[in-house]
């Protein structure tokens, strides 16, 4: 119950922030800070770090895996969309971090005379919510063209507190 209330507040805050934000994408993805293996851009948004040798940060790697476990059945194996759902590679080019995360948390419904597009809410799904930042980071890297569709071949080591963070999220 406590998790549900917290997630509902987070969803509302994300949607409110998204309403006042410009829809020009997340901006410059260059990492400027990091905490426990997670990188952030100049605006404090989660971002990726990919070395010249192709090594990705842990969050991008786990985001790839969790996208595959939770999102590809609708959005396709490389986030380019399918007959069920749109390309996230294209969508993230014009959506802010808050808009993307708000849609994942709260879902979305778009109905017109020719189609009905429905994204279910994942706000209660710990397999998505506990990995929200990594999934977003992976999609951001795909959308920016910094990461190709293949599984990242090399990644930074798992952060020291990763297991503790995930265990706390799953309760």
Task: Describe what this molecule looks like in 3D.
With 171 residues, the protein is mostly helical. It has one domain (2-170). It is built from eight helices and five strands, in the order αβββααααββααα. The strands form two sheets. It has a three-stranded antiparallel β-sheet. A two-stranded antiparallel sheet has the order 4-5. Strand 2 and strand 3 (46-47) form a beta hairpin. It is globular and about 50 Å long. The chain starts with a helix and ends with a helix. Mean pLDDT is 86; it is low at 1-24.
What percent of residues are in strands? 5-15%
Please compute the radius of gyration using only Cα atoms: 16 Å
With helices defined by DSSP (H or I, 4 residues minimum), what is the helix count? 8
Category from helices, strands and their pairing: mainly alpha
What low-confidence regions span 5 or more consecutive residues with pLDDT below 50? 1-24
- Can you summarize the main beta sheet? 3 strands, antiparallel
Order of helices and strands: HEEEHHHHEEHHH
Give the end-to-end Cα distance, rounded to a whole number of Å: 12 Å
- Sequence of strands across the biggest β-sheet: 1-2-3
Number-wise, the strands total 5
Helical residue percent band: 40-55%
The number of domains:
1
Mean pLDDT over all positions: 86
The 3D shape can be described as globular
Domain Cytochrome c: 63-124
Protein name: Cytochrome c domain-containing protein
Pfam family, one: Cytochrome_CBB3
Organism: Methylocella silvestris (strain DSM 15510 / CIP 108128 / LMG 27833 / NCIMB 13906 / BL2)
């Amino acid at each position: 119950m406590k998790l549900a209330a917290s997630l509902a507040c987070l969803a509302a805050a994300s949607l409110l922030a998204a309403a006042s934000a410009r829809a020009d994408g997340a901006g410059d993805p260059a990492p400027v800070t990091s905490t426990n293996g997670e990188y952030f851009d100049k605006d404090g948004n989660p971002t990726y770090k990919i070395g010249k040798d192709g090594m990705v940060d842990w969050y991008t790697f786990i985001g790839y895996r969790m996208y595959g476990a939770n999102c590809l059945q609708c959005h396709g194996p490389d986030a380019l969309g399918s007959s069920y759902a749109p390309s996230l590679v294209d969508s993230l080019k014009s959506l802010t971090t808050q808009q993307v995360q708000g849609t994942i948390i709260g879902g979305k419904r778009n109905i017109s005379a020719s189609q009905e597009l429905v994204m279910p809410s994942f706000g209660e799904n710990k397999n998505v919510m506990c990995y929200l930042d990594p999934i977003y980071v992976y999609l951001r890297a795909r959308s920016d063209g910094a990461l190709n569709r293949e599984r990242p071949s090399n990644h930074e080591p798992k952060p020291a507190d990763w297991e503790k963070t995930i265990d706390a999220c799953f309760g």
